[in-house]
Amino acid sequence: MPKIKTLEYFRVPPRWLFVKITDETGQYGWGEATLEGHSEAVEGCLDAFAKKFIGYEANDIEHIWQTGYRGGFYRGGPVLMSALSGLDIALWDLKARTLNTPIHHLLGGQVRKKVRVYAWIGGDRPASVSAAARTRRAQGFRAVKMNATEDVGWLDSPSVLAGAVERVRTVRGLGMDVAVDFHGRLHRPMAKRLVKMLEDEGVLFVEEPLLSENPEGIKQISELSSVPIALGERTYGRWDVKRFLKDNSIDILQPDVSHCGGLSELHRLASLCETFDIALAPHCPLGPIALAACFQIALCTPNHVIQEMGFGIHYNTEAGEADVLSYIKADEGWGPFSVVDGYVDAAGWGGVGLGIEVDEEAVRKAAGGEAWRSGWFLGADGGMREW
Known about the structure:
Order of helices and strands: EEEHHHHEHEHEHEHEHEHEHEHEEHEE
Number of domains: 2
Distance between the termini: 47 Å
Helix content: 25-40%
Largest sheet: 10 strands, mixed
Mean pLDDT: 94
Shape: globular
Low-confidence stretches: none
Number of strands: 15
CATH class of the largest domain: Alpha Beta
Radius of gyration: 20 Å
Strand content: 15-25%
Number of helices: 13
């Protein structure tokens, strides 16, 4: 059995961190370990993983995962789990390439013929969304997501929430489904009010009504409204998720494949959610490798309901340097990511491994440079607010 020979990583614009593993035979696999705003910390962890895992059997994915997770005494958290995610995704890609099959065939096989998808509109300070929604509809989307608000004070004027309702009505009036991302920006006094305001507006779901560090508040909000609650991008594996499942406080889990522990952990989380009758909708405003990994899960997961796609998201367009297709080889259009009437066709995902071909020359050419930094908001009083 071939052993791991090299582990490389590449920091590329606009804010992504790619991982490449090569075995002794020359076979390779790609992963994504993006942790927005904290690339250098993940890179340090990947350096440690390279020293630890070079020489390990590349096929022993679960053994490597368990060793990476448990083998350093301290475990969990965004940095370790993002590094482990990139490693894990790359190992699955390598294994499936070696076996000349798609990853989802190794995870049980296909359960659907197409995958429902949505895209972002608006930005961190959402304003007019009508034109953006029309553009997404022309691209084939039938569902979109937007930020609920700009920055909001711990207890703010109720008037600052009115715009969120109007934007939902505008987009719904175009015949599109709308998800509303609170982004953890609101604290409980304001989040309770806005969820109630949205109850009769037909939203697809509300995302992160509070930060996941406030499970008691999330449970309270879930009991105040019938709006489906989604959460999970800031949870890092099954131990972080367990509380929300036991509390029956969420309806949709949104793990990020680049943060939660990779394909191995995302697959486990999907099954765990199924036992609680909770849907899976992986978070993914990231790069093409993470997105391809999500589609591999979508194709083999019964309770997967919709997939986020980062094409043209404000984080990419504001940087003006790269987007999802910048580092992959696609014959025409969006390649396997092409959207028709709200869905991506499973027929485009029959290729080996992740189902995409990374343009290694473009990656190496773009690698390096300054790491992306998260933004933040300051309130009228000069105090810091949630971003």
